[in-house]
Specification:
single chain, mainly alpha, 3 helices, 83% helix, 0% strand, elongated
Length: 69
């Protein structure tokens, strides 16, 4: 795996752990609100990474395309 994939996997893992904590019902209201805010920030970072990857794929020519030109 490369660094970008590792980073995205880490973000996903953190979001999954946060979801488990929220579902447990053991957090105070304030702690849950803070965790939800953290989840929003993590989801934003994951979205930025996915957007970056999508743009990179669009900009890169398909394999073998250079031999057709």
């Amino acid at each position: 795996m490369n660094e970008a994939t590792d980073s995205l996997d880490e973000l996903i893992g953190r979001l999954e752990r946060a979801a488990e904590q929220l579902r447990s019902g053991e957090l105070s209201t304030d702690a849950a609100a803070t965790l939800v805010d953290e989840c929003a920030a993590l989801a934003n970072r994951a979205g930025v990474e996915l957007e970056r990857r999508a743009r990179a794929e669009v900009l890169a020519p398909p394999p073998g395309q250079d031999s057709l030109l």
